[in-house]
Design a protein that fits this description.
One of its GO terms (biological process) is mRNA processing. This is Breast carcinoma amplified sequence 2. There is one protein chain. The protein is 69% helix and 3% strand. The chain is mainly α and 226 residues long. It has a domain of 35 residues. Strands 1-2 form a two-stranded antiparallel ribbon. The protein is rod-shaped, with a radius of gyration of 45 Å. The protein starts with a strand and ends with a helix.
Length: 226
């Protein structure tokens, strides 16, 4: 495994024992991936309860019933109601002898006439100033789009550079770790060989000591016999 240090805000460097660009034990040993998946499956599922510090959901358009109803319609995926075209019509009075119906019909005719006049004025203004306004709008929109694309390109380049630096750094550190692990294995092997040699020497020393004792005993016996 490996170590990557990242600066923290109020403490020392945070240590992450992971080098994803270098560690490939799961790819080299498929049975390890199976063990990891089994361990993850055994872990308890995270609670779906909202953390108490999370603020309650915001109720949108609480003071605007029309907007709230429109939002509810969109959330429920209901189709938009067709436009009411009756206010753009000029129905005559159903009872020709009723003066109030005639007055209502006249007021409706005046409203329709004013509406048509405003439409004619807006169309004339649009015909006179609309093309230039749209050109300016399109120019500003294209400039904004180019700025956003340039910012996105810069961010992608920065992200690529960061990932490249991380990969190079992790590869370099990984090679150092591999070298250290190899050196550690060699040292452990040397230590084991030295311990085995010490044990063999101790056994040989014990054998020589016993032989010396036996030889000294036999020499003393020969001396007494003479």
């Amino acid at each position: 495994m490996s170590i990557e240090n990242l600066p923290a805000d109020n403490a020392g460097p945070a240590i992450f024992d992971s080098l994803p660009y270098y560690d490939n034990e799961l790819e080299q040993n498929p049975f390890l991936r199976e063990k990891v998946e089994k361990e993850l499956a055994r872990e308890a599922k995270p609670s779906q309860a909202i953390h108490p510090r999370v603020p309650p959901p915001v109720e949108l358009f609480s003071n605007h019933p029309l907007l709230a109803a429109e939002l509810a319609r969109i959330e429920s995926r209901q189709p938009l109601e067709p436009l009411d075209t009756t206010r753009h019509q000029l129905p005559g009075p159903q009872n020709p002898s009723d003066e109030e119906e005639w007055k209502a019909a006249v007021r409706n005719a005046h409203a329709q006439l004013e509406h048509q006049r405003l439409r004619h004025t807006n169309l004339a203004l649009l015909q006179q100033y609309g093309p230039n306004a749209w050109r300016i709008h399109n120019y500003l929109t294209e400039a904004t789009a180019k700025n956003i694309e340039k910012a996105l390109e810069d961010l992608n380049k920065l992200m690529t550079e960061v990932n490249r630096d991380r990969k190079n750094s992790q590869t370099r550190i990984g090679n150092q770790l591999t070298s250290l692990e190899t050196r550690w294995t060699e040292l452990i092997s040397n230590i084991l060989q030295i311990e085995m040699a010490n044990v063999a020497i101790e056994v040989e020393i014990d054998r020589l000591n016993k032989s010396e004792v036996e030889l000294a005993s036999s020499m003393s016996t020969v001396t007494l016999t003479e």
